[in-house]
Write a structure and sequence with these properties.
- The protein has a seven-stranded mixed sheet with strand order 3-2-1-4-7-6-8.
- Helix 7 runs parallel beside helix 9 and helix 8 runs antiparallel to helix 9.
- It has about 625 residues and is α/β, with parallel strands linked by helices.
- Helices cover about 55% and strands about 5% of the residues.
- Strand 1, helix 12 and strand 2 form a beta-alpha-beta unit.
- Among the domains are: about 100 residues, no CATH class; about 325 residues, Spore Coat Polysaccharide Biosynthesis Protein SpsA, Chain A (Alpha-Beta Complex), CATH 3.90.550.
- It comes from Gossypium australe.
- Pfam families: GAUT_1, Glyco_transf_8.
- One of its GO terms (molecular function) is polygalacturonate 4-alpha-galacturonosyltransferase activity.
């Protein structure tokens, strides 16, 4: 019995001795392998080995202090493993797709788990990594780089590729996939149209199911801007179903006919939507924002609380001085007129020489007058008057202004046609610059007053270059099939624009062009000679009476063209929001609104009260 207990004690002591000495032997063998692995380069660097022994001791101390923590598992490979990894990584670089190689990464993780476990191996692996980094800094300049350096370079390349993938999401791939799915949907629907009435075959059911699946995927992409994981599988399923359908319906000519019909229907739908969009934009262009109504009402109420002497503007003695610079704007919009006046005066070198004439209707006269009384234009002179105050207009010309036949009030408005009566509105002036109320002045306009008019009446920027978005052909607006127009006017004449025009009122009176306009207007009411608006009748009234101004004076298109060159806008003396997308409307082109809005004081109490914001 005693002998049995003795053998048991011997066996237990043997096992304890083995458990103590086995790790030591394993460590020594691995260190021996490492020494041979480094070769001559490692042997020559004896100080680094001594250094690494110290590091090993430090690491073992740190390991004991952090027994409860789990560190990352690192890989220790021999020569064969290293060469195989390098070869495999080169194949992966060549064959990897856009989203990486998840399978190979999982294999590498498995290798981590099978290359050794335990605290001792974790210690040694940390030490080896530090030794390798030291080898890289010392011996990296030599021709034969250590294999650990190759592994480190390979690791850096993998990390770099992953970073690049994270930084550049594959939006282009998503768009391409969505396009392919939509093409598949069109083809599938075309095959469905070949189905005989009352048919309920398995293929047709399958196609309908595939169409629902793909439409759901396309909807998810449109909503989330991300491609679902199941998208590729759905596309492959649809592809298989389409292949079956192509075998059932091999007639290519029937398919082509059906696709052409579908294309034609789609184009018709697009055209209907475009017409609807155009109609809504035109409708929006005729409306006035709610805040503008509020502002007009508040200003009008304030105006009628003033005494008659408080309604007078200063410097009214300058109104008929021909030596000053006279500008006019015809408007029923308080803020639009304000921007024209403010931008002109703020851009002027001599604002004290400017006289601004604002002409409006009786409904908006109190509001516009009150606005400029509250916000006087500095040293410049301002004069606001109503069209109803022109008694001579109804007696001398029988007031045919309201006889214009147009559903658009912008064309039939008396203010729109009042521009043809400027010599009568300003009888004491010889020259005047007329602005539309949708312009912004960006440069001093003093130079324009010295332009040689060559005995003509109108100075304007031409719009007859077909390469420009502002191109207007007289044929587009005039009915040259009428013999009256065909005999008197050249259908190829160069056109010009309203918006900023320099008028020689002295020559206008001498040539009696207002009466000529009246005759044309009466004739146009009886016959269909031109489209609505004042521009066509302006072209024939000032036919051979217009001198071309340089393009820099007037840049058009900010109310309909989103591609006006920025350089043209910045260099222009006057920019024009012609078109229906005015800068004060929500439909205005956003990137152009800043040129207009910077001339308004949005912190004004009335603008704040009426919720008018930039």
């Amino acid at each position: 019995m005693k002998k049995c207990h003795r053998w048991q004690r011997i066996l237990i002591l043997s096992l304890l001795s083995f458990s103590v000495f086995a790790p030591i032997v394993l460590v020594s063998r691995r260190l021996k392998t490492l020494t041979s692995f480094g070769g001559k380069e490692f042997a020559e660097d004896l100080p680094s080995v001594n250094y690494m022994r110290d590091v090993l001791r430090l690491n073992s101390i740190e390991q004991e202090a952090a027994e409860g923590l789990k560190g990352p598992k690192l890989v220790v490979l021999d020569d064969k493993d290293i060469s195989s990894v390098v070869r495999r990584s080169s194949y992966e670089d060549r064959d990897s797709d856009q989203f990486g190689n998840a399978q190979d990464d999982s294999k590498l993780l498995e290798a981590n788990e099978t290359n050794g476990n335990g605290k001792d191996e974790h210690q040694i692996q940390q030490t080896i990594i530090q030794m390798n980094s030291r080898e890289k800094t010392i011996d990296g300049y030599s021709d034969g780089l250590p294999l650990t350096y190759l592994l480190q370079e390979q690791f850096n390349q993998e990390i770099g590729r992953d970073d690049q993938r994270l930084q550049s999401p594959p939006f282009k791939v998503v768009d391409e996939k969505v396009k392919q799915m939509r093409d598949q949907l069109i083809t599938a629907k075309a095959y469905l149209s070949f189905e005989p009435p009352g048919s309920n075959s398995r293929l047709m059911k399958e196609l309908r199911a595939r169409i629902r699946e793909l439409e759901r995927v396309v909807g998810e992409v449109s909503r989330d801007s991300d491609l679902p994981m199941s998208a590729s599988q759905k596309m492959r399923s649809m592809e298989l179903s389409l292949a079956k359908a192509s075998r059932v319906f091999p007639d290519c000519s029937a398919m082509a006919t059906k696709l052409r019909a579908m294309t034609y229907n789609a184009e018709e739908q697009v055209q209907v939507m475009r017409n609807q969009e155009s109609h809504l934009l035109q409708l929006a262009g005729r409306t006035t924002p709610k805040g503008f109504h509020c502002l007009s009402m508040r200003l009008t109420a304030k105006y009628f609380l003033l005494r008659p002497e408080e309604r007078q503007f200063p410097n009214q003695q300058n109104l008929n001085d021909p030596d000053l610079y006279h500008y006019a704007v015809l408007s029923d919009n308080v803020l639009a007129a304000s921007v024209v006046v403010n931008s002109t005066i703020s851009s002027a070198k001599e604002p004290e020489k400017i006289v601004f004439h604002v002409v409006t209707d009786s409904l908006n006269l109190p509001a516009i007058s009150m606005w400029f009384l509250l916000n006087p234009p500095g040293k410049a002179t301002i004069h606001v008057q109503s069209i109803e105050n022109f008694d001579w207009l109804s007696t001398k010309y029988n007031s045919t202004l309201n006889e214009q036949k147009s559903y658009d009030p912008r064309y039939s408005s008396a203010l729109n046609h009042l521009r043809f009566y400027l010599p009568d509105i300003f009888p004491a002036l010889n020259k005047i610059v007329l602005f539309d109320h949708d312009v912004v002045v960006q440069r001093d306009l003093t130079e324009i007053w010295s332009i040689d008019m060559k005995g003509k009446v109108n100075g304007a920027v031409e719009t007859c270059l077909e390469s420009e978005a502002s191109f207007r052909s007289i044929r587009m607006f005039m009915n040259f099939s009428d013999p009256f127009l065909a005999r008197r006017f050249n259908a190829n004449v160069c056109t010009w624009a309203f918006g900023m025009n320099l008028f020689n009122l002295h020559e206008w009176r001498r040539k009696n062009l207002t009466m000529l306009y009246r005759n044309y207007l009466q004739l146009g009411l009886k016959r269909s000679l031109w489209k609505g608006g004042s521009l066509p009748i302006g072209w024939i009234t000032f036919y051979n009476q217009t001198v071309a101004l340089e393009k820099r004076w007037h840049t058009l298109g900010l109310g309909y063209n989103s591609d006006v060159p920025r350089g043209d806008i910045e260099n222009a003396a006057v920019i024009h929001y012609d078109g229906v997308m005015k800068p004060w409307l929500e439909t205005g082109i956003a990137k152009y609104k800043g040129y207009w809005s910077k001339h308004l004081l949005y912190d004004h109490p009335y603008l704040q009260q009426c919720n008018i914001h930039e």
